[in-house]
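If you are new to this repository, start here. Below is one unmodified record pulled from the training split, so you can see the exact layout before writing a loader.
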Amino acid sequence: MVREAVRVRAARPDEAAALSALALRSKAHWGYDEEFLAARAPELAIRAEEVGSRRVVVAEASGAYPELLGVATLEGRPPVAELGLLFVEPSAIGRGVGRRLYRDAVRRARELGCRALVIGADPHAAGFYRAMGARPAGGAPVAGLVRFEVRLGRAAPWVALWSGDRPAVHLGNVAEYNAQFGDASLDREQLAAHHYAALAAFYGPRPGALVLPRPVPAWWVAQVARQLDWSRVAVHDGVAPDRRSLSAAVAARHALAARLTGSGAVLVPWGQSPDFARLAGGGPWRPEVLRHESKAASHALFTGIVRAGGHPDVLVPRQWRPRNRWAAARLVAARTRAGLATVLKSEHGVGGSGTRVLTPERVRAAGGALAALRGLPRGPLLAEEYAHDPDAPVRDLTYDAFVDAAGRVHPVGAAVMDVVGTAYHGATVGPGVVPDGAREVLSAFGGAVGRELAAAGYRGWFDVDFVGAGQGRLAPTETNLRLTGPSAAFVVKARLDELRGGDHVVRIMDRVELGARLPEAMAGELCAALARGCAELGAVFVPAIPTAAFDPAPWLGVLVAAHTREAVDAAEALVRARAAAVGAMFGEAAQDPAAPSERGRRVAWRATIPAAIISGTLKA
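And here is the target side for that same chain:
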């Protein structure tokens, strides 16, 4: 459980003198001399009669004996507000008090109808405001203060409509969802799916509870809560450690099931399943509503939409269903002789699993078409024309939306995916990421797909994936009737836009490779240090998938965000380089029987790694 340690409330007139003294003490913390402080004292004073007009708030420690920890004023009127004062008691600096006061000011300025919040910052506090998302306003300092500005936009319409703008219960039932399709491309244990269940933290902007199959580290909950400003989220982890259905495991715990389903909160799963339908009690289960999760069914849907007209910039590649592997090999061989590439894919697959592009060169290198099929999963295969545009500015795109309970389609947005070969590695969302022309095509065709899904009875989140097909056209490749990595990026963008102002670019990186397995405490220290390093770049670091750090092939899933694409690129480079460098420190020792003990490696870690990461002296 993450609990609120500091609360922000309106100040009282009888606190004015104490708050003025607090502001002066906080200013003195930066080493100013008495003469300077005496000259600034009138500017820092709060008079009793001004408490209301200057919208003064205080931060205080919650508990039986609250103490004043900070003060802030929000001045001016729409369209521009000013953060007049923001000071923290010196003994409380570094405890998140300034962050709480700042985010409260951003929220109140938006509620007043302001389009911008301006800040005059002490030079010593400039780094704090940059880390909070404020952007330099330019120009020379005024009265020794550095000027910052925060742009305050309205929340995207889909945010409130998705989860009712109230805390929801998020169920990480990734493996349970996958299991119902009998996907032969996934490992039977579904280890990766149980790791990806941690993305339940990002199913919506304000979770009230997370339900996870495997235990998650406490540091992960605390770090996500800090970055996304969760005040109170119940975390029920380790609910299905034997990797059975998460919804069935919840239902078997009668007290937990009653608490979750009887709270009135919306239950949000990764995807629908028979067990989830029984747990949520939303009516009889209809498996046919998920039929377009099949790549063959989605291809037929795409073909019908294009034939109906109105989408001249969308090309649906031809697709065949070979009767068996021999038929698939003959088809590939014939296309190879014609100099054509072929895509082979399993009926269902996640993140590109079970998909292979067979170019003529690859077929010949393998020793023929039949040999080139080796390693593909058992079960039916689909063959498809290979749509490829080497000149496309971006090749792999996705469009996200959802269908509400009444069957209305609500657009969320478009993203650029990071795909290596056929394997999905992550996605980027935000302003300027998707070219304008492509975004219009994605929106029009994705909306048409959504209306067909709604007519078929589907309710929930969906996406449509595309590739560049040449001549400026896009080719749809599949639908996903569930939440995904890009959907997590959209949710985090909406939350950070709300907390920090501006229009964020968010990148989710599904796999940040580590050179060695990291125990929980070490992974937590690494992520805390990476958060500090990204903040220095004006970026936000959020650990997304923590539980794979001690796998035989260890990795982390992470999100990085900033107001510019360049800052996100810099944050990604920092995260990947330093994660690899930290892992390399233990790589050889982990395989050496004579290596220091686990306790010895922890001591070495704590003594050297955080400082090295922060300073940037540790290189890959």
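Two things worth knowing about this chain: The longest strand covers residues 409-420. The first helix runs from residue 16 to 28.
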